[in-house]
Amino acid sequence: MGAFGWFWKAMGAQSERNDKKSKAIVESSSSATQELAALDDAAVAQAARDSVRDGEIADKATFLAALAVASERTLGMHPFIVQSQAVLRLLTGDVIQMATGEGKTLVGAMAATGFALTGKRVHLVTVNNYLADRDAEWMRPLVEFFGLTVSSVTEKKTADERRAAYLCDIIYAPVNELGFDVLRDNQITDRSQTVQARADVALVDEADSVLVDEALVPLVLAGNRPGQAPTGHITNVVSRLREDLDYVIAEDGRTVALTEDGAARVERELGIDSLYSEENIGTVLVKVNLALHAKALLIRDIHYIVADGKLQLIDASRGRVADLQRWPDGLQAAVEAKEGLEVSEGGRILDTITLQELMRRYPLVCGMTGTAVEATDQLRQFYDLHVSVIDRNKELQRFDEADRIYATVEDKSKAIVEEIVAINATGQPVLVGTHDVAESEDLAAALRERGIAVSVLNAKNDAEEARIVAEAGDIGRVTVSTQMAGRGTDIKLGGATEEDRDKVAELGGLAVIGTSRHRTSRLDNQLRGRAGRQGDPGLSLFFVSLEDDVVKQGGGDEALSAQPDETGLIQSKRVSDFVAHCQRVTEGQLLEIHAQTWKYNQLLADQRIIIDERRAKLLDSAQAWEELEQRAPQRAAELAEVPESARIAAAREIMLYHLDLAWADHLELMDDVRESIHLRAIARETPIDEYHRIAVREFKELAQRAVEESVDTFKKVSIDEAGAHMEDSGLARPSATWTYMVSDNPLSGGGNSVLKGIGNIFR
Ligand code: ADP
Description:
GO molecular function, one term: ATP binding
Subunit structure: Monomer and homodimer. Part of the essential Sec protein translocation apparatus which comprises SecA, SecYEG and auxiliary proteins SecDF. Other proteins may also be involved.
Domain SecA family profile: 4-576
Binding site for ATP: 83, 101-105, 490
Shape: globular
Helix content: 40-55%
EC number: 7.4.2.8
Bound molecules: adenosine-5'-diphosphate
Distance between the termini: 35 Å
């Protein structure tokens, strides 16, 4: 326990106390439930409102009772005791640990309703677009029962639709859409263009994924350089097209074509008459086709990988990177645009924000996940969040087998196939968790060779995946999936309709197989958690080889002698202890990377807050005009004829233009600094101090430069009742912007990501 032992003990005691208290409240709520059940809807809703005093839920028992009655009436679900407990813990701002299948969707909606009743606006952060829509619709009757409003914000919604959605009390949205709206709102030049309304609470589903695993993933807003071809815009428009509706892929998978609807949609979104007109056919249409080809036919990790910020083609027959290969220029650029890489045709990053920075903007963060306990350190260190463990509603019936450890990857792969074949022969459904898409494809091919029908999830389509995963518990199924694919979807035994539930239960329920240990046990447990939901029988089993990345990375140079049997299997306590040790080492490394990288990000996060405040002031007042008038009184006097509102708007536009430009330059510069500072790290200076010194100095200069250049522009740009004519001076804002998530996450992915992550510390 070490020097801080007393601290942990005290913390443990505290959460136990909380637990007892909330259990007592939940108990007393059940008698209140009986009383409320006799009342009509309006009276029940009123009882919930009456339970609030001074912005807090004062009478928690009545509040829970009202929610229970409403849930029963609107959704046909009476909350389990453990669900009500979880709601209380969420309302105090904890991250709750609740196993998969315990009903977190209802818990989240109940807690969000509680926050909303106290006048707080809640962003309910979902894993993907599909779940945002699904959960908002599913939970809508419950929320509306109390006269509150609920909506979802998803990728396909327009700015106007989002603006309306954000005004609701509870908004379901995936984290990247929330972040993209923050970034876009930081580019507006008039307050009326704001899309996102302020929220008080972020309630995060699968909290450890968002807050820990993907914490350092940057969300990026990029824009075309004024005057250049809008490659980014076309990419963006094409990226939203939907298979089978807007385009169709030929059966052989080699060609793709727009449907009539798709063509019409592209024309509408690009604001052109016809893609096939003489002026467009050789230009716009070519680009659209390239972008569509890149989107629909070229799949990351199968046809190419992204490494070191560059596209690398994969030689399909060998499954290796083909070093010197490039696609024809246009196609290369189209795939680069799709991946958010630097595109030969130009385009620049306007702004970026990491998920961690995004989440820290909320006054209150709370969350739910099946694997919170293992993330306790990170949640406390980075967000000051506490973890509450909620009991299972029914006891766990899953059997977790000991790891099967092999000397080589080859032996391991063979054993995995044999095991799946053997389980499949009994009819028991199998869900296999792999580390990446390529591994999934290889395994599926090997299984098909053995005559087994396999469903593969490859993170292409959330709704389709949800449908496949929902069936993963059916008799005779074999489903192969990467870590995140299909998360958040219930796997019911006997298929989505539970037709063969009893038969599958007799066969032992769902068997989950991991093809190697993840770099943290938390990720292993996420996978295990897919079996044995709500007291179902189930099995989990991991395969490991001494050549796995986790073992090599965590084991360092430690040599290990072991005696495998003729199949390569090693049965030795010493070896399984060693594997566990290796995983603890990689866990420690990840935490260290996270802490280090966050140190780099934190300063920029603080600086962004200053930029935000400055922007808000410029947007909401006449300060821009006042500052420019003061610095260039003569020019201001010349503009006396221009109506005041136009003058103020023009000044605002000029100052925001230079502020945003300076910020984008700053981000780019600091990125370069981070990369070059690596050299000093080798010289054993303290790179982080150096980085900070430069960041502070540059930021000061940024502020000055933005003002000076604004004065320059103010003097020379023509200003009339229509505002400032920036574009005449080549100072136009990007005419198109697009967003993406940098998927080369230092903390995620398979392969040697741990190594890459460490390499990334000083970049
Ligand atoms: P989780 O997100 O925790 O994995 P879900 O929210 O998807 O779990 O819920 C799992 C299943 O349990 C769903 O089918 C849901 O309808 C059901 N469920 C949840 N709570 C209750 C309840 N109180 N009574 C009956 N069924 C419930």
